[in-house]
Specification:
Chain A: One of its GO terms (biological process) is molybdate ion transport. The structure holds three protein chains of three kinds. Chain A is of the alpha+beta class. In chain A, 27% of the residues lie in helices and 31% in strands. Chain A has two domains: 217 residues, P-loop containing nucleotide triphosphate hydrolases (Rossmann fold, 3-Layer(aba) Sandwich); 88 residues, RNA polymerase II/Efflux pump adaptor protein, barrel-sandwich hybrid domain (OB fold (Dihydrolipoamide Acetyltransferase, E2P)). Chain A has nine helices and 18 strands. Chain A has a six-stranded mixed sheet with strand order 6-7-8-3-9-10, sandwiched between helices. In chain A, strands 13-17-14-15-16 form a five-stranded antiparallel sheet. Chain A has a four-stranded antiparallel sheet with strand order 2-1-4-5, with helices on one face. The N and C termini of chain A lie close together (9 Å). The N terminus of chain A is likely disordered. Chain B folds into two domains: 126 residues, Periplasmic binding protein-like II (D-Maltodextrin-Binding Protein, domain 2, 3-Layer(aba) Sandwich); 99 residues, Periplasmic binding protein-like II (D-Maltodextrin-Binding Protein, domain 2). In chain B, helix 7 links the parallel strand 7 and strand 8. The N terminus of chain B is likely disordered. By secondary structure, chain C is mainly α. Chain C has a domain of 188 residues: MetI-like fold, CATH 1.10.3720.10. The chains are: A alpha+beta, B alpha/beta, C mainly alpha.
């Protein structure tokens, strides 16, 4: 668990949106919290509720100041939102987009523009300041959007899948850069993502959301090593099975696929049906559905795949050595 | 409810389309002559042999010709008189363009002249009309005579000069040395009357027949010199008539003593 | 956003069942205009262009139609915004009411205006008694009549544009600290600008051609209330040819203005 030594007051939120969200979230100033979870888990709802653009019941406190008692309107909350689709104002150039949040807070026009230019420079798109959004690539637009969200120096920065829809290369370089800016950012940053890589590289904390509830909250290493849901397990490329009220995680590399029942412990052995085979790095990744429920993945060499004649629908046995299994409890 | 100013129906519809076409008034020009006249078929009794004569008549003849048509139908069982009322200019145009009709009666000789090519013989003058001044029944401006229109506070309306009633007004205004200006020049006499009966004008210049038709809704005042500027109503049988005998008989009825008394009741003068 | 439209080679020939009625519609729309131009006696034109009455009517038409557009923009834009963005009781009722003048015969519009603002109208009477003001027979009455019939075109067009633009950017602006007024000024309005321009052009065109409501409510007097359409209608009583060539003048002016606007504004139209 993270240290909850809230030396500087950060974020303390308890939010309830009927049928969609029922979650608590706390973070210290300077923290970057990644929120991951499957589609429809309530990630965007959580961001919206924090920003005040989704009506929610509960309390939000940021930097020691309550946003809910009395209710602080969106415009006075001091949030910076980075939208998945950037949502840059299409009629304003990059500079004016970034200057917008400064102008609304009373910064004189010339100064706002100068500061906008500095932010654009910092995000490496200074030379695109006069361009309109439709003249920017996806990556460039996202940089402008990040600059726009950061420029007014918000107390809470909310990023909604900022790398979704970007080319892998573009996403990678932007991710590295964002890491740098987030490190320098002294407010709380909440990053919604469906990419484990984002969570692992950018966040100090990972919060796993499922069906509107927080099911796991820990350091990236913790969550990656001991995922508590199948979804996160899949995200981080691990098998997770529930046995006797305990969670057992193991790597797909440790899984052996064989046509007949192997020797060894029965509890590490599943009869399954191959659902699909796809290249995964040097190996082939086999997705199989066990007779008694869990989906399992195994990495096999191309040679053994041919030898096994793996094809969808084929029954196989999958097994793992006890020494490769990490066992932990559901709730700490 | 006040009577609506009389405007061709089609122009209202076309007005709606103005934004799209930009040429509503243009379209309205074209439509007038093509617009089928609003007909008022007064059929008393079943028409056994289905003979119908169509009479194109100036709008000011609405009441009197309605009554005469009934009289005519009573005297000719099985005959229906169909009446189409419109402005004289429009009717003359329709007659020239061969509209299926038997009789044409207009409100001035000029429009009848325009239709010369469509009539069989010399038109007969069957009635006269003259300009009078009317005020609303409660006479809000306290008008006592024609001269009061020179009072700057009096709002009055007249017909536009291109209409027969406006032509007469302009002539009389000149003769009587009127220096004030009307607030509005209405396109036809019914619009003038509507402005007065709806209290939007303190006075208006209409035909004596209009004043009679408006009854208690207006007060009538004479206009100096209007006796010298009477308009004559000619009537004639049309060349395209399929029942020229019946048409002739209808003209005879209109010009008869009986016809005259009906017309006089409506405010028309004798020819 | 981009205007590239790939051709669809597999779409096949246009079916006759669509081509035929389409062609008839085109003929119906275009033919009367062509015959109008063809039968116009152009000899009248020089005289008319020199006539004071025509000058007055043309000038009044331009003046009142532009004032109408201005009034539509100043009053209609906020109304469109209210209809598109603010929940209030009776909103759908109000939206329906706004559209009514679209289907109202213009003469009835004139009568309606008289009943409200005429000398003995519900508002007109107190206006007359209290301030000695009468609207009928004045140029402001022309503008009011035009605004009454043109406003729905403007409001519906702008409301449509506001709805299409959506509230997304309003939300973005709010997260950036903008008040609703700032958002309206700097985000909503610029984004709805194409709708505003389209609505303005529609309103202007409607105003330029307006006749029934004007002549009923405002009257018909050269220089104060006689616009081009009123003059054309008046002229029609005496000389159809003259009316036609006057119509040509009006047509030419509207085409000129639209062409001038097209350069800059009307590409999406």
């Amino acid at each position: 668990m993270t240290s909850r030594a809230l030396e500087a007051p950060g974020l303390d939120a308890r939010l309830h949106v009927p049928d969609r969200l029922d979650a608590s979230l706390t973070a210290a100033a300077g923290d970057v919290v990644a929120v991951i979870g499957p589609n429809g888990a309530g990630k965007s709802t959580l961001l919206g509720a924090l920003a005040g653009i989704v009506p929610a019941i509960g309390s939000v406190e940021v930097g020691g100041r309550s946003w809910t008692d009395p209710v602080v309107p969106v415009r006075d909350r001091g949030v910076g939102l980075v939208f998945q689709d950037q949502s840059l104002f299409p009629h304003l150039c990059a500079r004016e987009n970034v200057a917008f949040g400064l102008r609304t807070r009373g910064v004189p026009r010339a100064e706002a523009r100068a500061r906008a230019d500095q932010w654009l420079d910092r995000l490496g798109v200074g030379e695109l300041a006069s361009r309109r959004p439709d003249q920017l690539s996806g990556g460039q637009a996202q940089r402008v959007a990040i600059a726009r969200a950061l420029a007014p120096e918000p107390a809470l920065l909310l990023l909604d899948e900022p790398f979704a829809g970007l080319d892998v290369g573009v996403a990678t370089s932007l991710r590295l850069e964002l890491a740098r800016h987030l490190a320098a950012f002294d407010g709380v940053a909440v990053l919604v993502t469906h990419d484990a890589l984002d969570a692992l590289t950018l966040a100090d904390r990972v919060v796993v959301l499922e069906d509107g509830e927080v099911v796991q909250d820990g350091t990236p290493a913790d969550v990656a090593a001991r995922p508590r849901t199948a979804h996160v397990a899949r995200l981080v490329g691990l098998n997770v099975v529930t046995q006797g009220g305990q969670l057992r995680a193991f790597s797909p590399v440790a899984v052996t696929v064989s046509p007949g029942r192997p020797h060894g412990s029965a509890r590490n052995c599943w009869h399954a049906e191959v659902a699909g085979v796809a290249p995964h790095g040097e190996a082939l990744r086999v997705l199989a559905r066990a007779d008694d429920g869990p989906e399992l993945i195994a990495d096999v060499t191309p040679a053994s795949a041919i030898e096994l004649g793996l094809a969808p629908g084929q029954p196989v046995w999958m097994s793992v050595k006890e020494t490769s299994v990490d066992t932990y409890t559901m709730r700490p | 409810m006040n009577p609506l100013p009389r405007l061709p129906r089609l122009s209202r519809v076309i007005g709606l389309l103005a934004a799209v076409t930009l040429v509503a008034p243009v379209a309205a020009c074209g439509s007038d002559s093509d617009d089928s006249p609003s007909s008022d078929a007064s059929s008393s009794g079943a028409s056994s042999d289905g003979t119908t004569i169509t009479v194109l008549a100036a709008a000011s003849l609405t009441e009197s010709f309605g009554e005469l048509a009934k009289t005519f139908e009573g005297a000719h069982p099985g005959v229906t008189v169909k009446l189409a009322f419109d402005s004289s200019a429009t009717l003359a145009q329709q007659a020239v363009e061969g509209a299926p009709a038997d009789v044409l009666a207009t409100a001035d000789t000029r429009t009848m002249d325009d239709a010369k090519s469509a009539v069989t013989d010399a038109p007969e003058i069957f009635a006269t009309n003259q300009l009078v001044m009317v005020t609303p029944a409660d006479n809000p401006a306290g008008i006592t005579s024609f001269d009061d229109i020179e009072n700057g506070d009096v709002t009055y309306v007249a017909c536009v000069e291109t209409a027969p009633c406006g032509d007469i007004w302009a002539t009389l205004a000149k003769k009587d040395d009127v220096t004030s200006q009307p607030a509005s020049l209405e396109v036809d006499v019914k619009s003038v009357l509507a402005k007065v009966t709806s209290d939007e004008a303190d006075a208006g210049f209409v035909y004596s027949t209009d004043a009679v038709a408006a009854g208690d809704d207006v007060k009538e005042f004479p206009v100096p010199g209007s006796d010298d500027e009477i308009t004559s109503y000619p009537i004639a049988v049309l060349q395209q008539s399929d029942h020229s005998d019946l048409a002739r008989e209808f003209v005879d009825l209109v010009t008869s003593k009986q016809g005259r008394s009906v017309l006089e009741k409506a405010g028309f003068g004798a020819p | 956003m981009s205007g590239t439209r790939p051709s669809a080679p597999g779409a096949g020939r246009a079916p006759l069942v669509l081509v035929l009625p389409g062609a008839i519609a085109a003929v119906l729309l275009v033919l009367p205009l062509i015959t109008l131009v063809a039968t116009t006696p152009w000899r009248d034109l020089p005289d008319q262009l020199g006539s004071t009455v025509v000058h007055q009517a043309l000038w009044l038409s331009l003046e009142t139609s532009l004032l109408t557009v201005a009034l539509c923009a100043v009053l209609g834009t906020p109304l469109a915004w209210l209809l598109a963005r603010v929940e209030f009781p009776g909103r759908s009722l109000l939206r329906a009411a706004v559209a009514v003048p679209l289907v109202l015969p213009p003469v009835v519009a004139g009568v309606a205006l008289l009943s409200a603002l005429g000398r003995s109208g519900v508002l007109g009477r107190p206006l007359l008694d209290g301030f000695g003001l009468t609207l009928p027979y004045t140029t402001p009455a022309v503008v009011i009549a035009h605004t009454f019939v043109a406003m729905p075109f403007f409001v519906l067009s702008v409301e449509g544009a506001l709805r299409t633009a959506g509230e997304r950017f309003d939300v973005v602006a709010a997260t950036l600290g903008a008040t609703r007024w700032t958002t309206f000024r700097r985000v909503t309005l610029p984004l709805a600008l194409p709708g505003l321009v389209a609505g303005g052009v529609l309103a202007w065109a409607r105003s330029l051609g307006e006749f029934g409501a004007t002549i009923t409510f405002a009257g018909n007097y050269p220089g104060t209330t006689q616009t081009m359409p009123s003059l054309i209608y008046t002229e029609l009583q005496a000389d159809r040819g003259a009316a036609q060539s006057l119509s040509m003048i009006l047509l030419a002016v509207s085409i000129l203005v639209l062409a001038a606007l097209r350069q800059r504004w009307l590409r999406p139209l």
